[in-house]
Amino acid sequence: IGTRGLVSLGGRVDDNQRFGTHATYRLGAVYALLPGFRARASVGTGYKEPSLRENFAATPFEVGNPGLEPEESRSWEVGLERALLAGRLTLAANYFDQRFRNLIQYNGGAAPGSPNYSNVARATARGVELTGDYRPARHLVISASYTRLMTRVDDPGFSSGAGDAFVD
Question: To 10 degrees, the CA torsion angle through 159, 164, 166, 168?
Fold first, then answer.
């Protein structure tokens, strides 16, 4: 993007005999709006295969599920960054949004001998992050950050108790 911007692209392809081929990516861009003032944005996906335990456990209290699908996520973020005091102070604000699906859940109430793990839950996480870095001396940086995280359970799956993982 000329001398004022930068674009980065990353990708990964997982080719698994059991779960097939899954591609994930991350695309990001930074653009200098004015001297010391930048805008940035990114978008990407994620993927996590079930663990061996989630697929193949075989104990009296835990039975794996070989039919599980990988967990997947999509995310994006936008932000602004401002450098002040000849670059010694940097302030930034970001907004982010993440969506998770096929989350793997343990069901302690499954019938004996039946799989305890299933893909059932979906969730959303979004929020705002504020950061500041101050460099009063060459080898000293003072940093502060604040994150306001708002989560929502879109599908609680088997969760219903107060201590369960996917309960609002």
Answer: 100
Residue at 124: amino acid letter? T
Residue-wise pLDDT for 56-84, tens only, equals 999 988 999 999 999 999 999 999 999 99
Cα–Cα–Cα angle for 148, 123, 109, rounded to 5 degrees: 125
Q: Where in 17-70 does DSSP place strands (E)?
A: 20-34, 37-48
Condensed to tens digits (0 to 9), the pLDDT of residues 103-159 reads: 998 888 888 889 999 998 789 999 999 999 999 999 999 999 999 999 888 877 766
Classify burial at 121, counting beta carbons within 10 Å of its beta carbon; exposed 0-12, middle 13-18, buried 19 or more: buried
**Length reported for the chain:** 168
